[in-house]
Amino acid sequence: MTYRFRIGERVVCVDDKFHHVSIDQGIRAGQEYTVRWSGNYRHYVDGDFYGIKLLEIDRGNDDGPEGYGAADMPFRASRFRPLVEGGVGKKRKVEEKV
User: CA–CA separation, 36 vs 48, rounded Å?
Assistant: First the structure.
């Protein structure tokens, strides 16, 4: 099951590998982004998927040597996770008792 993102939600990239694609797609694992669009998307090569567009990245027209004519194609949402702020994930000092 894919998480459904909301516009304005902060996300973190967990997968920036694009196998069989030589053009840099612009996202980086561990980097934080903001969702500007989310929804179902149909691409004639990649098929149907739930995707998101990011405020920080406009992918432009996909008309390069490997392009398929898509305009500002979304990323698969499965490449991202919600950004959790607060105490979770923060490093804590742990004291060892002897």
Answer: 19
pLDDT tops 70 at residue 93: no
Q: Can you give the pTM of this predicted structure?
A: 0.77
Distance, CA of 98 to CA of 96 (rounded, Å): 6
Domain total for the chain? 1
Position 42 in a domain: yes
Q: Return the pLDDT at 68.
A: 64
Q: Domain range spanning residue 48?
A: 10-82
Give the Å distances, CA to CA, from 24 to 12, 19, 27, 92.
Answer: 18, 11, 8, 36
Domain presence at residue 94: no
Residue whose token pair is 């090569």: 45
pLDDT in tens, 61-80: 876 666 566 788 899 999 99
